[in-house]
Specification:
By secondary structure, the chain is an alpha+beta fold. Helices cover 41% and strands 20% of the residues. Helix 4 packs across helix 5 and helix 6 packs antiparallel against helix 7. It starts with 27 loop residues before the first strand and ends with a helix.
Length: 384
């Protein structure tokens, strides 16, 4: 598997379980099946390793997660029953849909089939992350494999969707970040280079196939999702460092106003709001504070009706959280300020370009950003 690492940790909007009530944590068993089914003289081997929630009957939320996992794992649209019943149903469905439709004249070597599916479940803070890895061969030049991930609120029993984490505008922004990381990973400078590597650039987008990890969020792209089969599977992730850089970026507009005009306006209000939200989420939801550690203080209620948040902590802790949010934003503001001070000629050159052209592409931006001081001086002399 070829891997693309883009650590993407902005999962603002995650609905964590309430600290005010006791949540039943899942316990796991692995149910293994290794059997060969034969129909019409054609054998098919089935290898299943299903991670089951052994104590699902102790909480409705766990039961809901167990039922959802079974549907995903065994490829069933509707089912009610136990794991062994699901195994039998899945095998019967496969034999009916694939082997039952084969022409008897098909050569034997083309009809030797196998299906292997295994799953892994792990608890990440107050989430249950369920990963299904499958591979199958039903004839042809090669088999097929995939990785599919599902993330659940342990307390609520529901699956998280990408829209719970990012609004439409931020999902659109993610696409650009993903492309840039792909360029970097594969040593290319644009979509033409990706095409040469086997990518389908027009299909590069966000995906509902993601998992929350201890370090961030990973997006998975299976063969043919954004590239050819030979490219293999690609995964994309975002880290704490990149999240902090995002805060610094969001403060850049206000910093530039202050440095250039020595005054501030309301133009950066939305960026300031987003920087504050990211910083607060890092502390209250993501466990990214050394003092507080892996503790989620903030919960989301009515996630489908706007997602109101509330703190589940003492007043003194809430005050400490406020102080740390301010400090986090201030630290990244100072970082942005220093970066702009060190690159003021480039800032002015970029502003001049935008003033004259109104728009700028990524390549044009990087061309100006990579100019040396002597080149910047020459450019200004030529335009004056």
């Amino acid at each position: 598997m070829k891997r693309v690492i883009l650590l993407f940790l902005v999962f603002a909007g995650l609905t964590f379980g309430s600290c005010r009530r006791q949540t039943v944590m899942p316990q796991f068993d692995i149910v293994v099946t290794d059997t060969v089914a034969v129909r019409g003289g054609i054998p098919c081997r089935f290898q299943y390793a299903f991670t089951s929630i052994a104590n699902a009957d102790e909480a409705p939320a766990l039961q809901a997660i167990q039922e959802s996992n079974m549907l995903y794992f065994f490829g069933l649209e509707h089912f009610q029953g136990g794991v062994q019943e699901a195994v039998d149903w899945s095998i019967g469905q496969f034999m009916d849909e694939y082997i039952g439709t084969l022409d008897e004249s098909v050569p034997q070597w083309e009809t030797e089939m196998e299906m292997a599916v295994e799953s892994e479940a792990r608890v990440v803070d107050t989430l249950l992350v369920y990963t299904i890895s499958s591979s199958n061969y039903t004839g042809g030049a090669h088999g097929m494999y995939s990785i599919n991930c599902h993330n659940y609120s342990i307390a609520g029993g529901y699956e998280l969707a990408l829209s719970d984490l990012f609004d439409a505008a931020r999902q659109e922004a993610l696409i650009g970040l993903i492309r840039n990381k792909l360029y970097e990973q594969f040593g290319v400078t644009g979509d033409e280079g990706l095409v040469a590597q086997g990518f389908f650039p027009e299909y590069i987008s966000t995906t509902e196939n993601f998992e929350v990890t201890e370090d961030g969020i990973t997006f998975y792209y299976n063969p043919y999702d954004i590239g050819c089969y030979a490219l293999g599977a690609v995964d994309v992730t975002m880290s704490r460092e990149e999240l902090e850089n995002k805060i610094a970026t969001l403060t850049g507009g206000r910093v530039a106003e202050d440095l250039v005009f020595h005054s501030i306006t309301t133009g950066a209000s939305n960026d300031i709001e987003q920087a504050t939200k990211v910083a607060r989420s890092m502390i209250t939801r993501f466990g990214m504070n050394e003092e507080f550690g892996m503790v989620a203080f903030e919960t989301v209620t009515n996630q489908y009706l706007g997602g109101d948040t509330s703190l589940a902590c003492s007043e003194s802790t809430a005050a400490q959280i406020d102080e740390k949010v301010v400090a986090a934003v201030r630290k990244q503001y100072d970082k942005a300020e220093q970066l702009l001070k060190d690159n003021m000629p480039k800032l002015h050159e970029l502003a001049k370009y935008l003033y004259e052209k109104e728009t700028i592409t990524g390549d044009e931006f990087m061309e100006i950003l990579n100019l040396s001081p002597d080149q910047l001086t020459t450019t200004r002399m030529e335009t004056n």
